[in-house]
Amino acid sequence: MQIYLPIAEMSVPVESLVFLGVAVGFLSGVFGVGGGFLATPFLLFMGIPPAVAVGTQANQLIATSVTGVLGHMRRGNVDVHLGTVMLAGGFFGTIIGIFLFRMLQHFGQIDVVIAVSYVVLLGTIGSMMLFESISAIMNKSKVTEDVQSLSQREFFRNLPYKTRFLKSRLYMSALIPASIGFVGGILVSILGIGGGFIIVPAMIYILGMPTILVAGTSLFQIIFISAFSCILHAVANGTVDIILSLIMIVGGV
């Protein structure tokens, strides 16, 4: 069944959007990622204008992240303190990302930038994962040692604004998680992805968080950053298609 999307100005099959929402919701609940890295490229493949795909996906991230984080909170697997610090950086990143988005849209280059960015970003992540897997197979003990010592290197220890995160049992500069949130804010506002597939590894390898807390804490900050990005996209750019978003939310929840 086809449905007309007023902002995208095109008709798309409802079944495909619902299926996409289901896939995104599954990824969100299990791995702590918003699923935008899957949803946005799929929307582009369906012919949705890149600007609309990004703005709308930020809205859909809210619903899938909420349903995922509720389960983690019931199990006590969310570090609210650390997630709040990440939010502070995320809000600044979102503002800068929206500014860049609007500037690129003004010059008519936003569609090209989004398409090229996805090719480069996903290609880079895939290559890094392949390299890490090969390294782990060849020398597992060395990889484990590097991961454990990363958050304790001299550069991180000398940063100011030391904060103790009791839930995660970490003591570090608040600038480190705030910087990770900053990157997530830029990603969600320009590419329509929550950044979980980058933020989650960063929380493990850079912050040294217990793995059990990573997924829930990642989703916690994605909720608020996505909501902030969605509002700014709707007000500043007018690229949020509520019909498209609602259909995907039905599948995602």
UniProtKB/TrEMBL annotation:
InterPro entries: TM_pro_TauE-like, TSUP/Inactive_protease-like
Transmembrane segments: 17-39, 80-101, 107-131, 170-191, 197-215, 222-250
Similarity remark: Belongs to the 4-toluene sulfonate uptake permease (TSUP) (TC 2.A.102) family.
Keyword Transcription assigned: no
Domain of life: Bacteria
Name of the protein this chain belongs to: Probable membrane transporter protein
GO annotation, cellular component aspect: plasma membrane
Keywords, alphabetical: Cell membrane, Membrane, Transmembrane, Transmembrane helix
Subcellular location: Cell membrane; Membrane
Topology with respect to the bilayer: Multi-pass membrane protein
